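Hello forum,

I keep getting stuck at the same step: I have a sequence, I want structure tokens, and every attempt I make locally crashes halfway through. Rather than fight my setup again tonight, could one of you with a working pipeline run this one for me? It's a single chain of 166 residues.
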Amino acid sequence: MPQVAIFIGSLSDEEKISPCAEVLKQLGISYRFTVTSAHRTPERTETLIDELEQSGVQVFICAAGMAAHLAGAVAARTIKPVIGIPVSSGTLAGMDALFSTVQMPPGFPVATVALDKAGAKNAAWMAAQILALHDKKLMQLLLDAREKFKADVAEAGAALTAKHQA
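Reply #2:
Ran it on my machine without issues. Output:
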């Protein structure tokens, strides 16, 4: 039973969005990763949303480039949290996708993260934080990860300082 659904609008987006799946896997969060399009396969998208909600999905993560309507199309069909990842492509290098993903009408929110791999990672972290609201074990994993991030920065800082001491 997946807790998170990851939808990409095109198979060509997989490389940019796969870090999302990697973070979810590291945190032990079950997910389904698939391709569906708001424009080319609207019926498939609708069916997937319905099936995944019935199977227990709690968060939808949607990545698309250019017109980037996938996250909005999903948000129109569910009241579960939707996280949008704009994908860089085309002549506008992702700005079109960013604006399309972030400009949702009131009542149909899409939490929008950065483009591509950095956004994919943060989408997974945000999904984990949402799930951790009702999962103490996951919350502790997130707190532990934050401590590791702090320790990594302190270690890098000490190494850089030592390298550049006069």
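Residues 156 and 162 are 10 Å apart (CA to CA). If your local run keeps crashing, start a new thread with the error log.
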